[in-house]
Design brief:
mainly beta; 32 strands; about 50% strand
């Protein structure tokens, strides 16, 4: 079961923790480039002058002989860093893993899965300077730990930026055909056809600003194929999924792609934008521009009018960020920057192997990778925005 969770974490690493610039974060220029060395990295989130990563850790629980995850936040303006212990240690139970990361101003939050036969999911956060981690979502339980049954509650799809975080809640039960004898039935209604199905219910998108939580959107009950595969359950199409946060605006889009809805942090619909059908490989919002990657093209929209302004053929595996008209995307382990106005671009291919990610903020570009050898394999690299512009000449 642990292997399933590690695979899910890898699948969610690109696209679940993206975030854009916000007026609440200092956008003062940072002139010096920098490299921060840490342990092997599995997630990146950036906001203004700060970058946060999830890393491996040293042996921390000798009774289990296991290491624990760490969250490290690096401020490129002050050159200071903070290390946080989420108390998530993979070897201490059947499932103990971090599945997502978000950075919202001085608050860093992570999605964790913990359990044995059952699985508990929840979002925990730490305000920088505080001494304790805080549960901000409540932990919900399901049977998809070692038992391998999907039934129960889930939390997922964590994003954040500026002063806002967002994530989803949903519940799953198993319905079997009427008259069938099966001990896995957990719904109070039969399946409408001749085979077992899942029914998704209590589907909410929640925004958190400070200590206040708000239901941003809700979805009606829906049906899905019976599965215990976590990645499939996390990406079921009816779940109201936040994909981005920018300047207090929360962007939601179905997991299979389609219309994009922009909400205020209070749940007011600000804009709905129709986009081409097809699963998205990233949707980002910054200022008046919204971009989404699907069908081998990058579609760029004006947020005020909802009009499609540009369609760019693009060979990419994930759209990661947008800042002042410059898009950042991945193609395998290569990091690409593209200026939307004139199509100028440049590429970086970090050394090592495994996880690579990148985000761009007003101060500059952040990218991460891990080397093959060494205790401090992980690298967070910062490139000032002025240097990025020179690369695009």
């Amino acid at each position: 079961m642990k292997k399933v969770f590690l695979a899910l974490a890898a699948a969610l690493a690109v696209g679940i923790v993206a975030a854009a610039a916000s007026p609440s974060i200092s956008s003062s220029p940072v002139k010096k480039p920098g490299v921060f060395k840490t342990r092997a990295i599995s997630f990146l989130a950036a906001d203004g002058s700060r970058a946060a990563v999830v890393t491996d850790g040293p042996v921390a629980k000798k009774s289990f002989g296991t290491w624990c995850y760490r969250v490290v936040v690096w401020n490129v303006a002050t050159r200071k860093w903070t290390r946080i212990n989420p108390d998530v240690c993979p070897g201490s139970s059947a499932v103990n893993v971090i599945l997502g990361l978000a950075l919202a101003g001085k608050r860093v939050a992570w999605l964790e899965g913990v359990g044995g036969n059952s699985l508990e999911l929840g979002v925990t956060a730490r305000d920088l300077g505080a001494k304790k981690n805080v549960d901000i979502s409540g932990f919900t339980s399901n049977s998809n730990g070692a038992e391998g049954y999907p039934d129960g509650g889930y939390v997922g799809n964590l994003v954040g930026k500026g002063n806002a975080l967002a994530f989803s809640y949903w519940s799953v039960c198993t319905a079997i055909p009427e008259g069938a004898v099966d001990d896995i039935a957990s719904c109070n209604q039969p399946a409408p056809g001749a085979r077992d199905i899942l029914i998704y219910s209590d589907q909410w998108l929640v925004g958190v600003v400070g200590k206040k939580s708000t239901t941003i959107a809700q979805a009606p009950d829906s049906e899905g194929e019976w599965t215990s595969n976590l990645e499939t359950i996390f990406t079921h199409d009816s779940i109201p999924t936040a994909v981005w946060v920018d300047a207090g605006r929360i962007v939601a889009q179905p997991n299979s792609g389609g219309p994009i809805t922009i909400y205020s942090a209070k749940g007011t619909v600000l804009k709905t934008i129709a986009v081409p059908n097809g699963a998205s490989s990233g949707t980002v919002l910054q200022g008046s521009q919204l971009a989404t990657l699907s069908n081998g093209h990058l579609y760029v929209y004006d947020v005020s009018s909802g009009a499609l302004k540009k369609t760019i053929p693009l060979q990419a595996t994930a759209l990661r960020d947008l800042q002042k008209g410059i898009a950042v995307y991945l193609n395998g382990r290569s990091i690409h920057l593209l200026r939307l106005s004139d199509g100028k671009k440049f590429k970086l291919t970090p050394p090592g192997k495994g996880f690579v990610d990148a985000q761009i903020e007003a101060p500059g570009l952040y990218y991460v990778y891990s080397l093959v050898k060494g205790t401090t394999k992980g690298r967070i690299v910062f490139v000032p925005f002025a240097t990025v512009l020179k690369k695009l000449r």
